[in-house]
Amino acid sequence: MRKNIIPHSRPTLGKEEASAAAKVVMSGHVSQGPRVREFEKALSKFVGVRDAVAVSSGTAALHLGLLAMGIGKKDEVILPSYVCTAPLNAVCQTGARPVLADIEMESFNISSGGVNDVKTRDSKAVIVPHMFGAPADMESIAGTGVPIIEDLAHSIGVFYGRKRAGSFGRCAIASFYANKMMAAGEGGAVLSNDKRFLDSVRDLREYDNKEDYEQRYNYKMSDILAAVGMVQLKKLPTMIKKRKKLAKVYDKALAASGYVLPKGEFDHVYYRYVVRFSEGIEKLLRQAKERGVLLARPVYKPLHRYLEMRTGFRNSDNAYSTAISLPIYPTLSRQEQNRVIKVLMSYSS
After folding, report:
1. Sign of the torsion angle spanned by Cα atoms 111, 112, 113, 116
2. Within the chain, how many helices (H) and strands (E) appear?
3. What are the sequence ranges of the domains in the chain?
4. What's the pTM value of the predicted model, to 2 decimals?
5. Please, are residues 111 and 139 in contact by the beta-carbon 8 Å criterion?
6. Of residues 213, 83, 221, 95, the one with CA closest to residue 155
7. How far is CA 96 from CA 122, 237, 295, in A?
């Protein structure tokens, strides 16, 4: 294996994040405290909602969001099959029944048609991940009548019309894992315009010093993560601009290739730059790795394959068989990007 490997993902971290974390450590208050509240206020203002509750991970955020909506046994929660297992885990943690929907190929997002195909009188929520940085059609999905939880794990900062994604559903969740748009190492948040809903999430976030007993959780965010998150949030608009600039280079270089490039009618922040190719995905992944370029399947395996559901997911299966995610992050150099392009072009030609 070559030493100068181009990774598929790379966090954009530096001296500012290190200094912010160090200040918290030196303060002696490293658990949940004033930095967390500062981060919550800044994050909700950026997205354009009333407030946010910071938690330990994106999965924890989704779990608490579902619980605050009163979702439990005998309820159904709709989610796309073409997504990682985190949303499925959160639904199962509530005791609700996960109901999988197929995606549309152009954006890889769940659509109103997919929701309508599977909704029933027991459908209490639909989880809408804005996949790879492209927003789902929120207006159309809202028309299904199923309460929406927006998943910003791939898409924080993206616009749908004149508003940022995360401001359309009953609530939204975000993730700040190491490979996300904002990398704090771990962490997540629940965002909403509903104060009572957020109060419920805040109550469920921690179990100690309560007057009554209900099942609550240890889902708090530390001030260390919040301090790093604050720096990342301030950098986010610049990081999005860099991602879009890199995407334009890919667009131009690969325009005449055999790859199907990302496109759509809405904004895109390019958490992932996902192309589709007709055949030979495993061979391409292997050959690229041998040349020091780490490409990846953007979703490891669709959920319906884990659950051994064989029909009704034609587009999800198609995406699994043909989609490839290219390196795209603010610290990707032009030289590195040219290497990625060269690998792709030599394979497709």
Report:
1. positive
2. 12, 11
3. 15-231, 235-348
4. 0.96
5. no
6. 83
7. 10, 37, 35
